[in-house]
Amino acid sequence: MEVGFLGAAGTVTGSKFLVHNNSTRILVDCGMFQGFKELRELNWEDFPFEARDIDAVVLTHAHLDHCGALPLLVKRGFKGRIYCTEPTLELTKIILLDSAKIQEEDAEYANKKGFSKHSPALALYTIEDAEKTLPLLTPVDLHTEFDIGTLKVYFTSSGHILGAASAWISNGETSIQFSGDLGRYNDPLMPPPEPPVHSDYVVMESTYGDRDHSKITSKEVLKQCILEIAKTRGVLLIPSFAVGRAQNLLFEITELKRDGEVPAHIPVYFNSPMGHEVAKLYERYHPFQRLASGQFAEIMSEVHSVKTAEESRALNDDKSGPKIIIAASGMLTGGRVLHHLKAFGPDPRNIVLLAGFQSPGTRGYSLLNGAKEIKIHGLYVEINCKVVPSDSFSAHADRSDLMTWLKQAPEAPKRTFLVHGESSAADELRKRIDKDLKWNVSVPRMNQFVKT
Q1: pLDDT tens digits, 266-297
Q2: Looking only at Cα atoms, what is the longest distance across the chain?
Q3: Cα separation, 141 vs 209, whole angstroms
Q4: Is the pTM higher than 0.85?
Q5: Which of 28, 122, 279, 396 could form a disulfide with 17 if both were Cys (CB 3.0 to 4.6 A apart)?
Q6: Burial (0-12, 13-18, 19+ Cβ within 10 Å), 185
Q7: How far, in Å, CA of 387 to CA of 385, rounded?
């Protein structure tokens, strides 16, 4: 077998790994690049392979940096199956259609306001492109082996978000396990990742490979922020991923209210139509998460749903507080949250809570590093509100979790590859694995191919 590291190598986003065995070519994940402009521009370039030559895609989970380029793959000639767990299938449908819709709306808005350098501004892909991708999604149960040409594949649960999985691939002689994104062992909603299976090679994420998460819990961070806006009568704005992060936030805010740790009267506005669809899946696929049937529906009954653009604008026009607004996207790369930041960022009574990883090159990363002005829709917006960064909300395994996962391997693999992390994070984890486990471990370069 040969493995090509065509994304998420030396960076966090754009996951794409090409597995080639004899006449069979599998793509593990097909994600969008996010963050710095030079990374985002890679989304517009041709793939370093012919899309029509790919037999199938093995999709680990539904986050945009793992599934977001699938419509481009189909647009460029891919006609095979996209294998994933059933919750991932349903989430991917929602996410791809939403991604296409946002791109079309952003392009339309840019053309209307004339702030794009491109004339006309175009969407990376359209709703029509996304719709052509959906019929190729094919559900597979966890722990159920299936064949793709000369290769055998099966999934194990990786925690992280609903339906997320690690993928084991073998040609009968050599095996390789792709961790996908690994979840935390103490996640409030998701179960811990299953241990690694016997594999000759391991490709593992390293997003937080150079550090452990804060010992201050996400619930405690939320409590302090909510109590503060209760005093200032301000707004707590939480940019959030619509999948995973938003559901954890809603669960823990509801818990704080029910336990009397924060004022129960403070309204929570959930401004993500996609997030609402995802919440239904958390209820539908409750065996894939910790809550029992009916529990997530109860949480959603206590939340104000913001569904239309008119309702979103009305929320911006009402500067009174206290109130909590949760809106996508988590790194402030697009969506309705940008309009909220324009409305509430200039007011020192308010708080923006950065609940998790902020990729370099994003507006969230700029806020994390103290920016007092943020460019939104071609204009600079003053940021006078308090900015609270916290990695306690992350759905990613931290350094200790990653080491715990590796130590559960039945035996040492021949070689371990660290991906899906910034260069510094991946290299620090490489040193830790080398020191503690004495394994053969390396950090592949973008577009590097390795024979196994």
Answers
A1: 999 999 888 888 989 988 998 899 988 889 89
A2: 65
A3: 30
A4: yes
A5: 28
A6: middle
A7: 6
